[in-house]
Design a protein that fits this description.
With 436 residues, the chain is an alpha/beta fold. The chain has 2 domains: 344 residues, TIM Barrel; 48 residues, no CATH class. A hairpin with a 2-residue loop joins strand 3 and strand 4. The structure holds D-xylose and nickel (II) ion (2 copies). The site of one nickel (II) ion has 5 residues, from loops.
Length: 436
């Protein structure tokens, strides 16, 4: 079989003293942290769209990257070779999972029936490769945002004909995800939003988006798909105002339309920062509301302010993310999917390996740092002390609902001013630095 990444044989764990740039210094898949292997905690996935299909083009310029699997004239031959290259990359890197959009793995044909036939052909091949390699599908999704038919949205399109097209694509994408044993299925509302209210019926569009998701829940039951459904929030890009703005927004939407029991969220770091939140904030909001599902691991650039989808290497970010994920009970169906692409100038195959290795090591370190913070109760103690009043009689009576306004007023009349106490932020930041 053709080797598409001959520069790398197998990425291995060599430990923190290794100087080999193609080895893990911290990610040791079998090593146990808090009773579970690092591989089981982190559940790394490679994304097909950026890693296999991303060729460096941006809004200002054409592709810069040439890949040997992308040269055949026939699009289906290209798709097959890309799939072979993908599984070679996944196995050489040593991840357990992958993620894809339907249109990443097979090119669209002239009509839906032909397009679906192409998908079936590639999915059969993918299934064989999954069996051969032990790779698993973390989640599948549909691309209902690139094709011109979706220029005004998919589920929120003003034309029901387009709604029907989106539904047909999702139907098939859910079926192939099921066929490949996917642990989940993601809805990222690519163009579900608007650019101007001058031409937009906002209420109707939101109702339609809910209808599309309700039909997806029906179809999930119909085909017996046992995976988790996720919504991936993002505040803007490509539309000015995306409906799934952030975790809070999605949670309200899911509750209003009685969908909350069927969905969890897929939190992307760069989308969090676009929404003027930290990555950790979005994760913490999900944990607090029982809706944390999976993670698109990447990072943005605060100076650029768009979805730069860079590989995550910031240890503060990975540590605090893993801290919140561990405190929330860890991943079940979800994992860390690298929704990230190498920079336009990183044109060599080996750059793809460097990018993933560095990010996997950054999350492995984050995991170990988070585990120590939890085991030594570093932040727990501080938080517990800060809220200690709530475990005293007054706090208990308020929390149990016993105190009405009159009772609270009586307490103040008898006890006067509260004592002011330091939040100790600087001290905690210093302590955190000792762990990083
Ligand atoms: C784009 C999104 C996309 C989803 C999958 O910004 O992150 O890649 O993860 O459709
Ligand atoms: Ni994403
Ligand atoms: Ni993104």
């Amino acid at each position: 079989m053709t080797e598409y990444f001959p520069e790398v044989k197998q990425v291995k764990y060599e430990g923190p003293d290794s100087k080999n740039p193609l080895a893990f210094k911290h990610y040791n898949p079998a090593e146990k942290v808090m009773g579970k292997t690092m591989a089981d905690h982190l559940r790394f996935a490679v994304c097909y769209w950026h890693t296999m299909k991303g060729l460096g083009s941006d809004q200002f310029g054409m592709d810069t990257i040439v890949r040997s699997y992308n040269k055949a004239a026939d699009p289906m031959q290209r798709a097959e070779q890309t799939l072979q290259a993908a599984f070679e990359f996944f196995t050489k890197l040593g991840v357990q999972f992958w993620c894809f959009h339907d249109r990443d793995i097979a090119p669209e044909a002239d009509n839906l029936a032909e397009t679906n036939k192409r998908l079936d052909k590639i999915v059969a091949l993918a299934k064989k490769m999954q069996d051969q390699t032990g790779l698993k599908l973390l989640w599948g999704t549909t691309n209902a945002f690139s094709h011109p038919r979706f220029m005004a949205g998919a589920g929120t399109n003003p034309d029901p004909h387009v709604f029907a097209y989106a539904a047909s694509q999702i139907k098939k994408a859910m079926e192939i995800t099921h066929e490949l044993g996917g642990a989940g299925y993601v809805f990222w509302g690519g163009r579900e939003g608007y650019d101007t209210l001058l031409n937009t019926d906002l209420k109707r569009e939101l109702d339609h988006m809910a209808l599309l998701l309700q039909r997806a829940v029906d179809h999930k039951k119909k085909i017996g798909f046992g995976g988790q459904l996720y919504i991936e929030p993002k505040p803007k890009e490509p539309t000015k105002h995306q409906y799934d703005f952030d975790a809070g927004n999605c949670f309200a939407f899911l509750q209003k339309y009685n969908l909350v029991e069927h969905f969890k969220l897929n939190i992307e770091a760069n989308h969090a920062t676009l929404a003027a939140h930290t990555f950790q904030h979005e994760l913490a909001f999900c944990v607090a509301n029982g809706i944390l599902g999976s993670v698109d691991a990447n990072r943005g650039d605060l100076l650029l302010g768009w979805d730069t989808d860079q590989f995550p290497t910031d240890l503060y970010d990975t540590s605090m993310a893993m801290y919140t994920i561990l405190k929330g009970g860890g991943f079940t169906t979800g994992g860390l999917n690298f929704d990230a692409h190498v920079r336009r100038q990183s044109i060599d195959n080996v750059d793809l390996f460097y990018a993933h290795i560095g990010s996997m090591d950054a999350f492995a370190r984050g995991l170990k740092i988070a585990a120590r913070l939890i085991e030594e109760k570093v932040l727990d103690k501080a938080v517990q002390e800060r809220y200690a009043g709530w475990d005293q009689p007054l706090g208990r009576d308020i929390e149990s609902g016993k105190m009405d306004f009159a009772g609270l007023e009586q307490y103040i009349l008898e006890n006067g001013e509260p004592l002011l106490r330091s939040g100790r932020q600087e001290l905690l930041e210093n302590i955190l630095n000792e762990y990083i």
